[in-house]
């Protein structure tokens, strides 16, 4: 499974690791992904998703149904 948020499609970022002498080498900044069981009110059940912590924060404000509709995700498949 790809390291990608299932709601926002957030993925890893290319960056540089900069040493003390300012030499730059490429590195990857991974997304902070967490497995979460979230209560889906419309479906009357829990849904298990792999979400970024940014998506979790947004989820508290918008709700799982609204975010899934924006992302075009059918929660019945999870």
Give an overview of the whole structure:
The protein is of the alpha+beta class and 78 residues long. The chain has one domain (13-71): Ribosomal Protein L24e, Chain: T, CATH 2.30.170. It is 23% helix and 36% strand. It contains two helices and four strands. The chain has helices at 53-62, 64-71; strands at 13-18, 24-29, 33-40, 45-52. The strands form two sheets. A two-stranded antiparallel sheet has the order 1-2. A two-stranded antiparallel sheet has the order 3-4. The longest helix has 10 residues, at 53-62. The chain is elongated, with a radius of gyration of 16 Å. The model has no long low-confidence stretch (mean pLDDT 95). Keywords: Ribonucleoprotein, Ribosomal protein. Belongs to the bacterial ribosomal protein bL28 family.
The percent of residues in helical segments reads 10-25%
CATH architecture: Roll
By CATH, the superfamily comes out as Ribosomal protein L28/L24
Low-confidence region ranges: none
The structural domain count equals: 1
**Lateral strand order in the biggest sheet:** 1-2
GO cellular component, one term: ribosome
Keywords: Ribonucleoprotein, Ribosomal protein
Protein name: Large ribosomal subunit protein bL28
Family: Belongs to the bacterial ribosomal protein bL28 family.
Task: Give a summary of the structure in a few sentences.
By secondary structure, this protein is an alpha+beta fold. It has helices at 53-62, 64-71; strands at 13-18, 24-29, 33-40, 45-52.
């Amino acid at each position: 499974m790809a390291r990608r948020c299932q709601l926002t499609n957030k993925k890893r970022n290319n960056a540089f690791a900069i040493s003390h002498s300012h030499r730059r080498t490429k590195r990857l900044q991974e997304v902070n992904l967490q497995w979460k069981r979230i209560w889906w009110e419309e479906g009357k059940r829990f849904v298990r998703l792999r979400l970024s912590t940014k998506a979790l924060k947004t989820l508290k404000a918008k709700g799982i149904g609204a975010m899934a509709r924006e992302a075009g995700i059918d929660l019945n498949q999870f």
